[in-house]
Design goal:
By secondary structure, this protein is of the alpha/beta class. The protein contains 22 helices and 7 strands.
Length: about 550
């Protein structure tokens, strides 16, 4: 292996190793949040059960669930749930480095890969049991294959990888627009355009069935709102630097990289800015524009575009280094690595903060199960308000073992749904009429007087509990409230006045019980078994 090959290998391997170290730190947080819970319980179903579910919900995540199924079959735990995302993030850091190395030189690849690895947004999704880190890896791989194909290699690997990435999440199809802009900026010959159009057409044909099915399930993202200036500002800070101390130098380096003329290595079809700039700008810009009429934008959906920022920043730093006369190559490379180390040290408080469950939707489903395990007894009736709260029992069934889910008509697995099918309003009212006591597992927003349930069954739950029962005990955990209700001596006729909270009579228990449940939650973590809204109600995110 000659010296140049060694430098290229090191430029790719070092960012991957750094990403693995950062991503492994705090990978086991003691619980999972609502979106991860969907992955955790769906990926443990049989293939026919997953296939049935995808006809009703989450079609956009179908391939990801199937990929996670053999992983969780080894051991249904939180670390294995997140491990594929961590490995995908490490691969992406290596691919970003490979892009910088191929389009410029090894030190550009090294700096770009390291910058990618220490970005807090990357670290966040490297530790989340969802598909976004895998999509970022596929996007970086497809972009590298585009560069190779434009230089005379086969277009088949490009089409296959991009099609697979789009099946992981359909919004990756926006890469086609970014790559079209890359070919236009690179002024490639007509033969390259012809072959790219064939590959792009094949990708669209593969994606079309998924797009049709997921369009019919668009109610799952009805909670999204049109992005505004705040969304743009937030994305800029997430991509280029969360604080001004990092953002401003990064933007200066990007501007330096974009100054014409763009350097292009001999034998290469595309200059680095022509590849990185469309990757950075086109997917977010298109999705934000479309979302002004049909809201579909969320930061996570364009995570894969982030790779363009470190590539441009590294290219800008390389331009400055080459402008310094007689600067040794090793000194310049070491100075760049030291600069990235300073950036990482600056990000350290954010990275540490991101390891807490409070940064992951503000809820820990293991805590809810721990509360149930401590307070509930076999045979106790349980009522989930709303039904989406059943996700804690699906993710951590041990805490609810032996209890009676009084509203459930058909389980999530057998019904092909995410959270099961509940009985109708009249049947539910009759079921509750036979109870003298019931445990209510409620989302925090469901206990507010201003919340109005969207379905008749949820309205019956709330009305009957308010009118015919009175609260006796309460326990609060991370994103969940557990209350014991007992039937009033005589059920009060008429509607309820105000919310449940307005008439709560606490008996001994306070929110400090939630802290105790947090300490007990570790006993329930990683257990298998049978088989999404923060402060305001909304469906689980895509």
């Amino acid at each position: 292996m000659n010296r140049e090959t060694s430098r290229r290998t090191a430029a790719v391997a070092v960012p991957m190793a750094v990403m693995l170290v950062i991503g492994s730190w705090g990978l086991d947080r003691g619980g999972i949040w609502r979106d991860e819970a969907a992955t955790f319980q769906v990926a443990r179903r049989t293939v026919p059960q997953i296939w049935r579910l995808l006809h009703e919900a989450d079609a956009v995540h179908g391939l990801y669930y199937l990929l996670l199924r053999p992983v969780l079959a080894v051991h249904p735990g939180e670390v294995l749930l997140r491990l594929p995302s961590l490995l995908a993030a490490a691969v992406t850091a290596g691919l970003v480095a490979a892009l910088g190395t191929r389009l410029a030189r090894p030190r550009v690849g090294l700096w770009a890969g390291l910058l990618y690895a220490v970005t807090p947004m990357v670290g966040h999704y490297a530790q989340e049991g969802r598909s976004y880190a895998m999509v970022a890896a596929g996007a970086a791989g497809a972009t590298l294959l585009l560069v190779r194909a434009a230089g005379g290699r086969s277009w088949t690997p490009y089409g296959v990888v991009l099609a697979f990435t789009c099946l992981l999440h359909e919004f990756a199809v926006l890469l086609l627009l970014a790559h079209a802009a890359t070919l236009a900026l690179g002024r490639v010959p007509r033969r390259v355009w012809t072959r790219w159009l064939c590959a792009a057409g094949a990708v669209v044909l593969v994606l079309l069935p998924l797009a049709l099915v997921s369009h019919a399930q668009s109610a799952q993202v009805a909670w999204l709102r049109s992005p505004g200036q705040g969304s743009v500002d937030r994305l800029v800070h997430q991509f280029a630097g969360p604080t001004d101390e990092i953002l401003v130098p990064c933007l200066i380096l990007i501007c330096v990289a974009l100054r014409r003329p763009w350097p292009k290595l001999p034998g290469r079809e595309l200059p680095l800015p022509a590849v990185a700039l469309p990757l950075l700008l086109v997917p977010p810009a298109v999705l934000m524009t479309v979302s002004q009429w049909s809201p579909l934008y969320d930061d996570r959906y364009v995570l894969y575009a982030l790779a363009g920022a470190p590539l441009l920043a590294a290219a800008g730093a390389d331009r400055i280094a080459r402008a310094v006369p007689r600067l040794p190559r090793a000194t310049a490379a070491a100075a760049g690595v030291l600069a990235v180390a300073v950036v990482c040290a600056h990000h350290l408080p954010l990275l540490r903060q991101d390891r807490s469950m409070a940064q992951r939707g503000g809820e820990n489903l293991a805590t809810a199960s721990a509360l149930a395990a401590r307070e509930l007894r076999p045979g106790d009736p349980v009522l989930f308000l709303p039904s989406i709260g059943r996700r804690s029992a699906l993710a951590y069934p041990r805490g609810f073992r032996g209890t009676r889910d009084v509203a459930l008509a058909e389980s999530a697995r057998t019904s092909g749904t995410l959270y099961g099918v509940e009985m109708g309003p009249e049947a539910l009212r009759r079921q509750l009429a036979g109870l003298d006591r019931v445990w209510l597992v409620a989302e925090p927003y469901a206990l507010r007087p201003t919340w109005y349930p969207g379905s008749p069954a949820e309205r019956v739950k709330r009305a009957v509990v308010e009118e015919e029962f009175e609260p006796r005990r309460e326990f609060r955990g991370s994103g969940v409230t557990l209350r014991l209700y007992e039937r009033r001596p005589t059920a009060r006729p008429g509607g309820a006045r105000g919310g449940i909270d307005m008439r709560l009579r606490r008996v001994g228990a306070t929110s400090r019980d939630g802290a105790a449940a947090d300490r007990h939650a570790s006993a329930l973590r990683g257990t298998g078994g049978a088989p999404t809204p923060p402060a305001s109600p909304r469906p689980r995110r895509w």
